[in-house]
Amino acid sequence: MALAALTPVLLAAPVASIDHVIGLMSSIDESLASGDGVAWFNKLYRRVTERVAVALSAGTFENPAFIDRLDVVFANLYFEAMQTFLINRDAVPRAWSPLFDGNEEKGLAPVQFALAGMNAHINRDLMVAIVRVCEEMNLVVDGNSAEKRDFDLLNPILNAVETEVRASFLDGILEDLDRWLGQVDDIVSNWSLVEARSAAWHHAENLWRIRNIDFIEEAYIDGLDGLVGFAGRGLMLRAPRLLPS
Q1: Residue 240, CA distances (Å) to 41, 172, 180, 187, 243 in order
Q2: Separation CA 176–CA 178 (nearest Å)
Q3: In angstroms, rounded to a whole number, what is the distance separating the alpha carbons of residues 93 and 228?
Q4: By C-alpha distance, which of 102, 84, 123 is closest to 39?
Q5: Which 3-state string (H, E, C) describes the chain?
Q6: Tens of pLDDT along the chain (245 residues)?
Q7: How far apart are CA 100 and CA 37, in angstroms?
Q8: CA dist., res. 14 & res. 24, Å (int)
Q9: Which of 208, 58, 223 shows the shortest CA–CA distance to 130?
Q10: Which of 34, 181, 188, 230 has the fewest CB atoms found within 10 Å of its own CB?
Q11: C-beta separation of 239 from 184 below 8 A
Q12: Taking Cα atoms as reference points, which of 125, 136, 124 lies closest to residue 65?
C-alpha cells in the first residue's frame, strides 16, 4: 500500500524539537504520492507547526517552554499512530483508522482527509499530550493557568492556517463540481477546531484527575477513541453517494 513508503521515513521518530517535527513532516510530504489522503492532512499539520514555531520565536506565550514541548509530544503521537498502522493495523487507535484505512479512497475531497486527521489528532491525542507534558514539566492541568491561556492563544493561529489551507485545497477544481463541493461542505461544516481544542483541554483535566488509576485511565481513553473514530468515519463519507439520484 502507498503508506508503506513511510516506513523508513518514520525511523526518525520520535523527534525532540519543533524543527525536527517540521523536518519529518516535510519528509513525509516528499514520500507520499500526490493522491494519498494522508498527504493532505500532513500538509495542513506542517503549515500549522510552522506557524506555531513563528509564534514561539515572536515571544507570544507566557510559558513558551510548555507550548514548545506540547507541540513535540503531540506530533510524536501522530508519528506513532502511523508507525503502528504500518506494523500492526489492529493496534492502531480507532480514531486514526478512518484516515489511514481511507488513504487511497477515491471520490473524497482533500479537505475531508485533512479534517479526518484533525479530528483524530485533536479529539483523541491532544488530551494525552497535555497530560504527558504537564507531568513531565511538573505542571498541573488547570483551566486558570498560564498554560491554558497559551493554549487558547493558539486558536486564532490555527484557525487562520486551517482557512488558508482549506482554500488552497479547492484551487483548480472545476466549476461544475460546485454541487459536489456543497455536499462535502455539509459533511464537514459541523466540525469546529476551536470547540475540539476546548473539549480536548476539558478531557485533559478529567484525565489528569484519574491518571494514577490505570484501568480507569485506559477505559477513558479507549471510550473516547471509539467515539472519535465513529466521527471520523462520518467525515470520510463519499460525497457522490449523498447526491440525489
Answers
A1: 21, 19, 7, 12, 5
A2: 5
A3: 10
A4: 102
A5: CHHHHHCCHHHHCCCCCHHHHHHHHHHHHHHCCCCCHHHHHHHHHHHHHHHHHHHHHCCCCCCHHHHHHHHHHHHHHHHHHHHHHHHCHHHCCCCCHHHHHCCCCCCCCHHHHHHHHHHHHHHHHHHHHHHHHHHHCCCCCCCCCHHHHHHHHHHHHHHHHHHHHHHHHHCCCCHHHHHHHHHHHHHHCCCCHHHHHHHHHHHHHHHHHHCCCHHHHHHHHHHHHHHHHHHHHHHCCCHHHHCCC
A6: 589 999 999 999 999 999 999 999 999 999 999 889 999 999 999 999 999 999 999 999 999 999 999 999 999 999 999 999 999 999 999 999 999 999 998 888 888 899 999 999 999 999 999 999 999 999 999 999 999 999 999 999 888 887 787 667 655 443 334 444 455 555 555 668 889 999 999 999 999 999 999 899 999 999 999 999 999 998 898 765 444 43
A7: 8
A8: 10
A9: 208
A10: 34
A11: yes
A12: 136
Q: Which of 114, 118, 110 is nearest to 173 (CA)?
A: 110
- Sequence letter at residue 56: L
d(CA 65, CA 59): 11
- Cβ 89 vs Cβ 102: under 8 Å: no
Amino acid (one-letter) located at 184: V
CA-based angle 111:201:157, to the nearest 5?
A: 50
C-alpha dihedral, 184 to 185 to 186 to 189, nearest 10°: 130
Q: Identify whether the C-beta of residue 114 lies closer than 8 Å to the C-beta of residue 50.
A: no
Can you read off the three cell numbers belonging to residue 240?
Answer: 457522490
